[in-house]
Amino acid sequence: MTGFFETLIDQLREPLHDEKIRHRNLPLLKGAMAASALAAIADGTITFSQRVRVDQVLQTLEALKVFNPNEGVDLFNNYTEAILKSPRSGRKKALKAIKKVAKDQKTAALLIRICRAISEAHGEPTLVEKIEMISLCSQLGVDPKICGLNVNELGLALD
Q1: Which of 37, 55, 128, 157 is disulfide-compatible with 80, CB 3.0–4.6 A?
Q2: How far is CA 105 from CA 25, 67, 68, 139, in A?
Q3: pTM of the predicted model, to two decimals?
């Protein structure tokens, strides 16, 4: 009988463990989807390949695998719809979610790399997409070079 109870207790603990991980990683999910939305909507349109890339991000990042991909897609859609409806307040909402999780350089750089992956999903990122990513780097205090962004090619001065 002891084996039965141990198995039952283990099965009951597993969902609690997953819920703890989900709770801890929820700000990252929101930040990643907000960054994805900023990158995808930067040029005014969201391509099918960018939507596919959002799914790939959700399925690839270990910290996000605990979530149903539909949760991430819903967040992505909410952010993009908010940006389209009211660019200023929608962007502010997305940046708030990003800054909430981007407290260290490693996470901030990860979010920029996610933006880059979304922007490159349909080929070479547009000038507007590149400016969006560099602007985000500036706001998060991330050197664009460590994320593979070349500021010099845009002729921008970030000083």
Answers
A1: 37
A2: 17, 24, 27, 12
A3: 0.82
For residue 130, give the nearest of 115, 111, 146 by alpha carbon: 115
In this structure, whether the domain defined by 2-154 belongs to CATH 1.10.3680 is answered with yes
Q: Which of 156, 26, 35 is nearest to 96 (CA)?
A: 35
Each residue's pLDDT expressed in tens, for the chain with a length of 159 residues: 556 656 655 655 555 556 777 778 899 999 999 999 999 999 999 999 999 999 999 999 999 998 999 999 999 999 999 999 999 999 999 999 999 999 899 999 999 999 999 999 988 888 899 889 999 999 999 888 887 777 666 555 544
Rounded to whole angstroms, the Cα distance separating 100 from 79 reads: 15
DSSP string, 53-69: HHHHHHHH-GGGTTS-H
Residue in this structure with the two tokens 């819920």, named with its chain if needed: 19
Q: For the chain, what's the residue count? A: 159
Residue whose pair of structure tokens reads 């959700």 in the numeric block: 58
Q: Name residue 30's amino acid.
A: K
